[in-house]
């Protein structure tokens, strides 16, 4: 059984998902275009405290309610309902991030059950999955898009076309076998991209607009809508990232980063004890560019504090190097 909310000639279904310890209703809009084409799934709110992507997903539903596109759109504006209610990125029912789990498990933890539900009912029947993310309430972030190289050469060609078409200033095109989730999906001929825009949980106009524009670009390459040729030739493409995790708990004091370019051995922050004593400097191990960082003060053991993209090339200079 499912309830529905009728809003301006489109319908958002509240679909029931059994997470084991709790049943939730997840909003989903299924919109069929005026002509046949590919199926694109868009998720937002996988991290329940990343609001720019959630706002953008609701606007996409409104934007395409007139069916003026080819193919099918399936949009989940808030996937992680428990996290959204708790104002947290993790699902508080098991303290797991939905974005880190695929394909899930029908008999697993609440988050594993959530992703299994999403996969078996929707993802397996799609051609492409766009996952909207951004800076959480305690994260600063420069907008960028994750693309993934996999063992599926046909999808790799598509990814390269998407990279050339995007208007993002920063792009991460991770090398093969780094993202297991993307590899598994590619084995089913399903492409996966994660878009990051938004800072400190804000729903600012600029971040929402980036999500909308990037989605249109992806839809254009997929043949779902018409798009103009991308004139942005100044994008930076990074093939690797490095995430800095702490080996101790304490207080995180980020360094003031005036230039987005990060250099090897540059201090990017420090960890202090609750008594205010210096415990450890956090130093970059590579030359690269800032992607995102933890802004909140609390620092938990094994928590990611900073992310840098490296091994970068200018898009205009890449030619056949992708």
UniProtKB/TrEMBL annotation:
Record GO terms (molecular function): hydrolase activity, acting on ester bonds; metal ion binding
Keywords associated with the record: Hydrolase, Metal-binding, Zinc
Span of domain Succinylglutamate desuccinylase/Aspartoacylase catalytic: 36-215
Pfam short name (any one): AstE_AspA_cat
UniProt xrefs under SUPFAM superfamilies: Zn-dependent exopeptidases
CDD domains: M14_ASTE_ASPA_like
Keyword Nucleotide-binding applies: no
Protein name (record): Succinylglutamate desuccinylase/Aspartoacylase catalytic domain-containing protein
Organism: Candidatus Gottesmanbacteria bacterium CG1_02_37_22
Top-level taxonomy: Bacteria, Candidatus Gottesmaniibacteriota
């Amino acid at each position: 059984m499912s309830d529905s909310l009728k809003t301006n000639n489109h319908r958002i279904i509240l679909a029931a998902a059994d997470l084991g310890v709790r049943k939730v209703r997840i909003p989903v809009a299924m919109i069929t275009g005026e002509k046949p084409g590919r199926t694109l799934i868009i998720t937002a709110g996988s991290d329940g405290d990343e609001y720019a992507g959630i706002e953008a997903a609701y606007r996409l539903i409104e934007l395409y309610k007139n069916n003026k596109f080819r193919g099918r759109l399936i949009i989940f504006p808030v996937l992680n309902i428990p996290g959204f209610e708790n104002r947290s990125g993790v699902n508080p029912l098991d303290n797991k991030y939905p974005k880190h789990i695929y394909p899930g498990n029908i008999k697993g933890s609440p988050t594993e059950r959530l992703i299994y539900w999403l996969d078996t009912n929707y993802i397996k029947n799609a051609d492409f999955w766009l996952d909207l993310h951004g800076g959480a309430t305690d994260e600063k972030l420069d907008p960028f898009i994750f693309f993934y190289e996999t063992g599926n050469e046909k999808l790799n060609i598509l990814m390269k076309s998407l990279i050339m078409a995007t208007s993002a200033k920063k792009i991460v095109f991770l090398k093969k076998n780094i993202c297991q989730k993307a590899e598994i999906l590619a084995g089913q001929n399903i492409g996966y991209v994660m878009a990051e825009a938004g800072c400190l949980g804000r729903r600012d106009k600029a971040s929402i607009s980036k999500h909308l524009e990037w989605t249109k670009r992806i839809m254009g390459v997929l043949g779902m809508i018409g798009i103009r040729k991308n004139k942005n030739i100044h994008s930076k493409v990074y093939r690797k990232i490095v995430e800095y995790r702490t080996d101790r708990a304490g207080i995180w004091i980020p360094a003031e980063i005036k230039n987005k370019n990060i250099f090897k051995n540059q201090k990017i922050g420090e960890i202090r004890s609750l008594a205010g004593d210096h415990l450890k400097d956090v130093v970059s191990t590579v030359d690269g560019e800032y992607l995102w960082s933890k802004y909140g003060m609390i620092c938990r053991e094994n928590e990611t504090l900073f992310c840098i993209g490296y091994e970068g090339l200018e898009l205009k200079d890449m030619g056949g190097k992708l």
